[in-house]
From TrEMBL, chains A, B:
Record bears the keyword GTP-binding: no
Alphabetized InterPro entries for the sequence: ComB-like, ComB-like_sf
Family affiliation: Belongs to the ComB family.
Record's catalysed reaction(s): (2R)-O-phospho-3-sulfolactate + H2O = (2R)-3-sulfolactate + phosphate
Matching Gene3D superfamilies: ComB-like
Record organism: Pedobacter boryungensis
Record-given protein name: Probable 2-phosphosulfolactate phosphatase
EC nos: 3.1.3.71
Gene: comB
Length: 238, 238
């Protein structure tokens, strides 16, 4: 039977999908899964996603780097925030990072309860990710982390980009795949401009992180595919 | 303060929206809200949406017309099915119809618990609906009934058409509005062809109701706006 690829537009809809035999790709483009991809690619030993600053604190005194932001500022006492530029070789190589991310963590924790495997996707590793998915004999669910359980533009655009790459290798028939792919095809020549339409874009402008956004939309900066093992994201061994 | 317009892509996400001061437009293009619009426009006294054939049966012996389908066939003993062509003046004028529709009923019942007002939209009454919404001093939520709690293409396309008409009269910033409108703009010159991409289209082809689909995509056949009063949809008095 042909493998299927599906797009789940928000974690609130995940219960509608059978994922016991699926690889779930968690997508939180601005900025969690982009920073995670970049960090793992740069040799971080592991990245532990947590939902809030309080949970992050529980990992203090373990020798981990702690990453937490509030309103775009690094929380006092923490090592850095959520910018992908904090996840360089120099900063995270060989280290374990605890990363605070509400939407991404929720999506990963929900997915791991039932999925065959949970990996992390972003524009930064899209080709490596798609090449690997093609070699796996599994269905694929692209899980958009969204924004507070609702639909968002940037995660759906990335899902559409993956559907577009994998369209000949997987059966895809659900309506969310159709719209994600068509949105991506419409926007792909200038993703940044298209994202100016999004609500998150306004939030991000207020945070003054335009360079982060530009970076998160770059293609194929990384080869690594982060995979969830327990509560830790580590590099998938290819 | 400017009125807002928002798109809720499925009933499963309705709890994310504050609708206490909103007019909720329920959308189930193929075919519930199209048939309801046509029926009310053709003088039906009321249409009562119910979730399943069993619930429909509870209305037997009350002198109502009962509409129920299973697998595209009128259920034995019922007066007609869900085709809009059953909702003509001759058949429904002055009558009350009990209509079985899973997705549409669920959306309407969920909305009425909190919304200021619940009305029904379809391509058949889009201009009448939009003209009326412009005159109301209320926020608008376009609620796609979807398919089994998930996203579908046809309801989202209609939501996008409404956003496009109302874009200068309402503030719209949520990402679902953006994608619905862009999908609509991409597809509007040939909605039928675009819908061939949808999963529902395959289900519909199996039901052999191509004429119904064509009819449900017609613009402005009707002037009536069905409004929910208790469990009954009746014509809104303009």
């Amino acid at each position: 039977m042909a493998r299927t690829i599906e797009v789940c537009l928000t974690p609130a809809l995940l219960n509608l999908y059978a994922i016991e035999d699926s690889i779930v790709v968690v997508i939180d483009i601005l900025r969690a899964t982009s920073s995670i991809t970049y960090g793992i690619d740069n040799g971080a030993e592991a990245i532990i996603p947590v939902a809030n600053v309080e949970e992050c604190l529980a990992y203090a005194d373990k020798g981990f780097l702690l990453a937490a932001e509030r309103n775009g500022e690094v929380v006092e006492g923490y090592d850095f925030g959520n910018s992908p530029f904090s996840y360089t070789k120099e900063k995270v190589g060989g280290k374990t990072v605890v990363l605070t991310t509400t939407n991404g963590t929720k999506a990963m924790h929900m997915a791991r309860e039932r999925a065959y495997q949970v990996v992390v996707g972003s524009f930064l590793n899209i080709t490596a990710l798609c090449d690997w998915l093609k070699t796996q004999d599994k269905n694929v669910l692209l899980l958009c982390a969204g924004w507070k359980d609702n639909f968002n533009l940037e995660d759906t655009l990335f899902a559409g980009a993956v559907v577009n790459v994998l369209r000949n290798d997987f059966k895809h028939s659900d309506d969310a795949c159709v719209v994600a792919e068509d949105m991506y095809l419409m926007a792909k020549d200038d993703l940044r401009t298209y994202l100016h339409k999004s609500s998150h874009s306004h939030r991000l402008a207020a945070l003054n992180i335009e360079e982060d956004v530009q970076f998160c939309l770059k293609l194929d900066v990384c080869k690594a595919i982060p995979v969830l093992r327990g509560d830790r994201l580590v590099a998938l061994t290819l």
